[in-house]
């Protein structure tokens, strides 16, 4: 299942990367490729926020992963919304014995290759197979050198900025993705 998702994602990456590359030059074209009603606002990173669910109470299960599954290791999920498909990795970050559910858009911020999670059972970061960028998840509640708590920031390689975050919320025994940056 995961492999199938990865193959599908690879195809989407090629399209998405091309679309975003064009979009950076011609904003109106982005509007015709992406349904603007699904977009919320530009974020501080210059990325765009896609609202998957307004609230965890009306969020479909396809945007969620059982916490128990995340205790075995990070899980890849393709978040589909309208014509978009956002590749995401859900995981748990262990900070002093406390588990924090997280999710990130797995498109590398360099040239868009899919990044791989690292850390085994608990997520500690990501690496990009294309040009060697490394991303580390900040586990200091007070921040890490200008980066926010749980931000997956660049520790090595050419990537210009942190991985785009996905806002999550827990309901019952599942972790739901509410908003994703693309
Ligand atoms: S695309 Fe990830 S380091 Fe270049």
Automatic annotation (TrEMBL):
Residues 62-177 form the Rieske domain. Keywords: 2Fe-2S, Disulfide bond, Iron, Iron-sulfur, Membrane, Metal-binding, Transmembrane, Transmembrane helix. The keyword DNA-binding does not apply. It holds the Pfam family Rieske. One of its GO terms (molecular function) is metal ion binding. The chain crosses the membrane at residues 12-34. This is Rieske iron sulfur protein (ParR). It comes from Pyrobaculum ferrireducens.
């Amino acid at each position: 299942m995961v492999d199938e998702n990865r193959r599908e994602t690879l195809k989407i990456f090629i399209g998405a990367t091309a679309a975003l590359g064009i979009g950076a030059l011609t904003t109106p074209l982005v509007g015709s490729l992406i349904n603007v009603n699904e977009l919320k606002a530009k974020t501080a990173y210059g990325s765009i926020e896609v609202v998957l669910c307004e609230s965890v109470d009306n969020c479909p299960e396809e945007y969620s992963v059982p916490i128990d599954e995340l205790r075995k290791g990070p899980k890849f999920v393709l978040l589909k919304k309208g014509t978009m498909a956002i590749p995401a990795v859900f995981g748990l970050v262990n900070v002093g014995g406390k588990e924090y559910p997280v999710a990130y858009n797995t498109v590398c911020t360099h040239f868009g290759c899919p990044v791989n999670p690292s850390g085994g059972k608990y997520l500690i970061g990501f690496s990009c197979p294309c040009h060697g960028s490394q991303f580390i998840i900040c586990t200091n509640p007070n921040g890490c050198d200008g980066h926010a708590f749980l931000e997956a920031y660049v520790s090595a390689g050419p990537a210009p900025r942190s991985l785009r975050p996905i806002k999550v919320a827990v309901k019952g025994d599942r972790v739901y993705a509410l908003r994703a940056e693309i």
